[in-house]
Amino acid sequence: MTITIREITPQDPAALHAWWEVGAAASAERPFPAWASWEVSQVTWSQARTDIDQVFLLAEVDGRAVGAGRLVCFLTDNTHLADLEVYVAPAERRRGIGTALLTELEERAASAGRSTYFMSVPTPVDGDGAGVPFAAAHAYPVASREETKLVDLDDTAGWAALDADVAARLGDYRIEVFEDVTPDQWVDGVCTMLGAFIGEVPAGDLDLEAANWTPERLREHEARTRDTDRAWVVGVAVAPDGSLCGFTEVGVSRQDPRLGRIGGTLVLPGHRGHALGLGMKLATHRRVRELFPDCGSIETTNADVNAWMNAINERMGYRIVERLLDVQKKVRAS
């Protein structure tokens, strides 16, 4: 069997669709619609980016698409990192296709000067799936363990009691929600939240560095979100002095709004204990449902050691649907 690997571009719709089909087949066994639709994916991948470089690789056997790989190199922060993705059609596994793709991705990452490679490996709640032994066989130990959870937006009967708890603990703090564009008076505060996120959220042994969010970077992010036809629903916690002290975000595709995704939630130290995280999440989830009645679930991923966030999610009705293991290889000192 001869495996041919070629680089493709988003400007070749037929090749990109073949790449997407491999990923869709490889993701079909996951317990929720984690793989975005073709329409959503094509728009996302075709957008010009200034914050990342990305390479798409397609593996073929006898002209059939059997594997897909993607390399993402960050250009703004964490420029030592390479984010790798490897997908193999289920019927084609254990034939060396994944290894061939990973080898090519690693070579390209090394050529780009990257010194730490990582992959996110979804696994069943009660097992390891195909990705864990593959990662271990290629010297990618687990660096962080997370849990992927979903909340059913049709089952929110218990939220009224949570509202009462938030009201009792909020004091002089308040919760605000906005969509898509950050109000000017909160731009600096949102940048502070986004920049603090990596240092405040448990990340295990992942080789991550703090991010530098500027107003210009934030506005570029907002424009990119609009250009890919996504809604960005943001909740913020406002301290008694008017400064921002908490942040949460939910992204929803306007083309396919069935599933919303939380990007991150953070309350700054010194402001915890006022139910701000719970209040922000309740407010944003309700706003998502108002804007998108067809959004039936919201997904979040948290480290299994993040007791504070896990407790909030459990109270809101989130249930664990799979584990997400971040595996990592350091190839030289960064």
TrEMBL record:
Question: A single Gene Ontology molecular function, please?
Answer: acyltransferase activity, transferring groups other than amino-acyl groups
What the entry lists under SUPFAM superfamilies is as follows: Acyl-CoA N-acyltransferases (Nat)
Write down the Pfam families for this protein, in alphabetical order.
Acetyltransf_1
Which UniProt key words apply to this protein? Acyltransferase, Transferase
Keyword Acyltransferase assigned to the entry: answer is yes
Where does the N-acetyltransferase domain lie?
3-194
Task: Extract the CDD domains matched here.
Answer: NAT_SF
InterPro entries found in the cross-reference section: Acyl_CoA_acyltransferase (IPR016181), Bact_Acetyltransf (IPR050832), GNAT_dom (IPR000182)
Q: Which PANTHER family match?
A: AMINOALKYLPHOSPHONATE N-ACETYLTRANSFERASE-RELATED-RELATED (PTHR43877)
Q: What is this protein called?
A: GNAT superfamily N-acetyltransferase
**Organism source for this protein?**
Nocardioides ginsengisegetis
Provide the taxonomic classification. Bacteria, Bacillati, Actinomycetota, Actinomycetes, Propionibacteriales
